[in-house]
Automatic annotation (TrEMBL):
Keyword Iron among record annotations: no
Top-rank taxon: Bacteria
Protein name from the UniProt record: TetR/AcrR family transcriptional regulator
Pfam families for the chain: TetR_C_14, TetR_N
Record keywords: DNA-binding, Transcription, Transcription regulation
Gene3D superfamilies, A to Z: Homeodomain-like (1.10.10.60), Tetracycline Repressor, domain 2 (1.10.357.10)
DNA-binding region, residue intervals: 36-55
Coiled-coil parts of chain: none
InterPro entries for the chain: DNA-bd_HTH_TetR-type_CS (IPR023772), Homeodomain-like_sf (IPR009057), HTH-type_TetR-like_transc_reg (IPR050109), HTH_TetR (IPR001647), MftR_C (IPR041347)
Keyword Isomerase: no
Record-annotated HTH tetR-type domain positions: 13-73
Length: 218
């Protein structure tokens, strides 16, 4: 039974990926606005009904790769030690994902995704793809925080982290000569909460109002 279930799930994943790749290819060739669900289904050699079993629309099919990568990121965050400060755990997860090879210039997904970057008809769905995972990410961050306002602080950190990732992705797509890991490290470094930054001489000397201000973000 387990083998049958596993085979069935692999076939579903393969069909979903084939639809995603067909959608990307057609969007690059004709522009996202001219692509239809019917055309995507035909290119993947499935029926319109089969397409509807996997995706709610062409935008969802186009962003399937992004969704997979966001879910993988969430998995990597969950694998980080729970005693790490939240931002450090988030940063290490993002860098670990970059090390998995998502910056390979020969990757068809990457080259096609770059060509679609910033298209007006896709921006809203991109924001939605990030928002869909924000709740789960915030719940994971909250496990690393204490205090009655932990859920709120977790939401702030989660939203900040995902917004920072969008900036890093845009920077990398616009400047492909720089490795993804380096771009992520720089951008995430700029957004690091004060509590996770190395102490400055001013704070070491006890500048008024600085000591412990953000320690609860840890």
């Amino acid at each position: 039974m387990d083998e049958c279930t596993g085979l069935r799930e692999r076939k579903k994943a393969a069909t979903r990926l084939a639809l995603h790749e067909a959608a990307l290819r057609l969007a690059v060739e004709h522009g996202p606005d001219r692509v239809t669900v019917e055309a995507i289904a035909d290119a993947a050699n499935v029926s319109r009904r089969t397409f509807s079993n996997y995706f709610a629309g062409k935008e969802e099919a186009l962003f399937h790769g992004d969704t997979l990568r966001l879910r993988r990121l969430l998995e990597l965050v969950r694998q980080q030690p729970t005693d790490l400060p939240p931002w450090r755990a988030l940063t290490w997860a993002a860098l670990a994902q970059a090390d998995e090879g998502y910056d390979d210039p020969a990757e068809p997904w990457l080259s096609r995704r770059r060509l679609l970057h910033g298209h007006p008809s896709l921006v809203a769905h991109q924001v939605g793809a990030y928002a869909a995972i924000e709740r789960e990410l915030s719940a994971e961050i909250a496990r690393r925080l204490t205090g009655p306002d932990a859920p709120l602080r977790a939401r702030v950190l989660g939203a900040t982290f995902l917004a920072t990732l969008r900036v890093a992705a845009q920077q990398w797509i616009e400047h492909p000569d720089e490795p993804l890991r380096a771009v992520l490290s720089t951008v995430l470094g700029h957004a690091t909460p004060a509590a996770d930054r190395p102490p400055t001489r001013a704070t070491d000397e006890g500048m008024p109002g600085e000591s412990g201000t953000h320690s609860d973000l840890r």
